[in-house]
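Q: Structure for this?
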Amino acid sequence: MLTAMIAVPLAGAVLVALLPRERVVLIRRLALGVSVVPLALTVAVWLRYVGGPLPEMIESAQWIPALGVGYKVGVDGFSLPLVALTALLFPVSMAYPLALNGRDRAYFALFLFLEAASLGVFLALDLFLFFVFWDLSLVGMYFVIAIWGHGDAARSAIKFFIYTLTGSLALLLAIIGLYLATSPHTFDMVSMIQDPPLSGSGLRASLIFLAFVIAFVIKSPLVPLHTWLPPAHVDAPGPGSAILAGVLLKMGTYGFIRITLQMMPDTFRRYAFALAVLAVVSLLYGALVALAQSNIKRLIAYTSIAHMGLVVLGIAAAGGVLLESADARRIALDGAELGMVTHGLITGALFLISGSLYARANTYEMDEFGGLAARVRAMGLLTIVFAFASLGLPGLAQFVSDVEVFVGAFAVYPVLVVISLVGMVLLAALFLRMLKRVFLGPLHERWQGMPDLDATERWALIALLVPTVVIGVYPAWLIDVIDATARAVIGG
Amino acid sequence: MVWVLVLLPIALGLVLAVAAPRRQVGVAGAAALAAVLGVAVAAALERSASMLAWGGLLQLELSVAGVSRLLIVLVPAVALPIVAFAGGLYNDDPAVRRLVGLLVAFVGAMELLLVAADLLTLLIAWELVAAFSWVLIAHHWREERPPLAALEAFVTVRFGAVGLFVAAGALLAGTSSLSLAALPRLNGSALAVVAAGVLLAAAAKSAQLPFSSWLFAAMEGPSPVSALLHSATMVAAGAYVLIRLQPSLSAVAWFGPAVMALGIAGALAGGLVAFMQTDFKRALAASTTAQYGLMFIAVGAGWPGAATAQLVAHAFFKSLLFLAAGFALSLAGTGDLGRLRLGRRERAVAVLTGVGALALAAVPPLGGAFSKDLVLAAAAARSSWVGAAVLVAGLMSGLYAARLYVLSYGPALWPARGHDVPNSQPLPGHLAPSRTPHLAREAEAAVLAACTADPPPAPPQRLPKLAMGYLAVLTVALGVLGLPAAEHLLERLSGASLAPVAGWQLVAAVGSVAAAFVIVWALARRRVLLTLGMQEGAQAAFADWLGLPVVVHRGVAGTVLAVARALRRFDDHVIDAGVWATAATGLRAAGRLLVFDDRIVDAAVWGVARFTWLTALASRLWDDYVIDGAVEGLAAASRWAGAQARKLQNGMVHDYYIIVAVGVVVTVALALRL
């Protein structure tokens, strides 16, 4: 079943690529139909998922036995929520209207390919397989930005590519380093989690850890390796940004949990405080720089950096000490994992909305707008809801993860948490300011004729709004899945 | 039952906002709140409690116990007339349904805050209350100012909420629980952290110094919104949480003195500002800070029961006074105290307002007087200095209450500065520039009416007057607070005893009020009641929180924005370029390392990679630093370099993937591009 999640969109991509270029409607329908399959499969998997300490529903096959490389996929409490997020965000983003300049076939084929690769990253239980999918997703996103982007898209795409390729190189080196430390040599992630290689050893473990951190800091991204993100987001098409923020960034934070925390717990503990400082710097720095932006998409991009900082703070706190305050650390880890899902839903929606705004106004400059809610009511209302979600309003998803990270991490790093809470105030200020500048106040005459969101856009955003509200009001069904695995990691 | 109490108003409010009959929206809203009131009484009687697992180790605990048994009934009881008033007075406003619906839903958020028995639930309710305030203050969102005012209120209160996050973190770290019942298990320093966090949150919510100025900004909202915010919801939340947690937090040595100090500062400064103000609603807003300051003093002195009495009495008379302000605004089109004096024109409303003003001034036998006596007794029991401060605060409340009443609904005997004709019949000409630029929104309707028709049409009055009458009756009825039976009830509910009121305290309290009235009468006789004989500039500075808003806007917000802008430039120019330079160097080094490892890569690939990096870096630096007046030749070179970078980049991907043995899949990817 898990293999089908990867194989179906991949096959769909090939199928779409083989269709005649002119059959635009058929291409779109087929691609959307295929993209929904992983979502249906996720529901089935979720219902069958038990929630033990180890990955479940494992499917494996031999690949290169001589090197210990295998094909192995499975789900646990860390991957299943991200698989669900990916499976939801792809159909929504693909359905979202975008001017494709006649290259519909390539667009949908590429998105299906990207969906397969992204699901593969989260499902993989073999480091080599993980790396392959990781890099494939990078290639797919490069083309999405370069071909369907606007502004200086080619340059932003190159920048994105060079940055993340550097991360990939670091990741590859680190994976090989970790691989060489196993005996017998294997890339199997489950065995590395159960019996972490390199426990307690010195320089070698530190260097490998550093390489992983570089890879994941670039991908997440955290300050100071974040400068690829704003141009990539600004020049990417709306749906591309949604996938980039909603799915691809999560690979970095997922890597922090899956690899550095689970496979190198001793090394992680040694450097957890440094990582936490980096996370807090990212949170505050991202929020402050976002506050000063005049471009709405850049603003959202920088809030992403802030939110990812919060996620990493939760992870760092969870692995920061041994034995002590196990309950609080579990809550922090639950919150970090949940934060990936909530950020994906909410920021994904905000990027889709900014894509709609650009399609209507051909600009992202907030000062050129004003009072839009009088004209585009649905867009205004949805933006208000998602902006409040992003600044952490209770009743909406982000609050739950925010509060878990802050409250849980306090037990480990009280001072850092107090500092990072200032970021919450900044996020509130910058989102409310954005709402004021774009949607509230007197209507700017230039936008008297702006059309409101069409039916497709509304339904796509509602598809993201529903889980945002459900998680915000009653998150137990999701937290319990995460918590079963988090408990195994933290102990207690 | 306790969940119904929270969810019923929210559900009814949402229904009302979209589907209420517009003509009868006030009645519909009042009916909805009557139902909520019934649920509240039932929940208070059965002391219902409930728990909901929220996933992992989180759970939401709700319980109706102690002082919240009283307050869950108070909130809908006060909100009911406010909603009726809003629906009645703004019948013509197309957005009246949204206003009424949100006011009703707001009650649900506040009920959640009152029944929260753990810090997570409290935090949820705390932020929800702030969000409702944002929507309500920004009710007139098509205008320039209200959204900004709503922003200021939300961000100020969010700053306070940081304290609750910290308190929750400290409680969890110390006890592995977020339940308020776990507070006593906390050790000294952790409890001190909780106390500091709670105090920060409460001070911001209750608009004590230095957070007071958000209340002025919040005056951009319609008057009924202010009535609800100040009496029973947003501002009340701060005092409530202190009352509720005082028994646990009083173990922290500095907690009581700190709360008292904040309260004294708020009571005195708020009183001064209220006395100086020349705008009806702003004077009321400043008096809110002063009155909540008294509650803080009582809590700090260790007598939360007295604070509860003050909270209840204040809820009724302050909402009454804000409704009176709303009525005046829609009648006269201005909140400028120099232009009102509506006493002759609206005798009935003047009488009702008078009841509210007397309660605010603490004239016996109104409830407001007895609650202030309890606060005075509590303060005096702690220290005679604190008692003296409360007496001064009492004198000031007498001063501002009397002045406010005379200037707003008083008889038109003494013309104000610059006006030789009393404003019993407002003329369109009077609606022109006012001394206070922040005219409240009710002015709009009146201005429009004045421009289009000859006599301004009177606003719909039956329901609004009925609502004010209800509040006035309850304000009078609260005189029962003076009875021993009521004191016993209060003691039982708050679980703390009340300080006995000494005879000299009663005399001193009544004396200070009487002195205040004499002073106001004397000022009125000398026709300086409005200006107080001060220079306009000096009075305006005093009245605007002695410049506090300027400090908040320019000092805090301005500094943060300046830092943010500087960081943005830093980010665009320094970090970006720095990373590229470092990366190029690092990659060169890595390239050398890898040269030895021909399993992974060979020297040729890295030569290409290095060249790519350098050209990419060159084009990047070019763009950042040489923008204007570019030499044509260099531009061409840059374009060439960019093109090279792209070409070489693709080659590099290709090589790279062949080497890592996934070239096959990449070919698929490249094929898809075609």
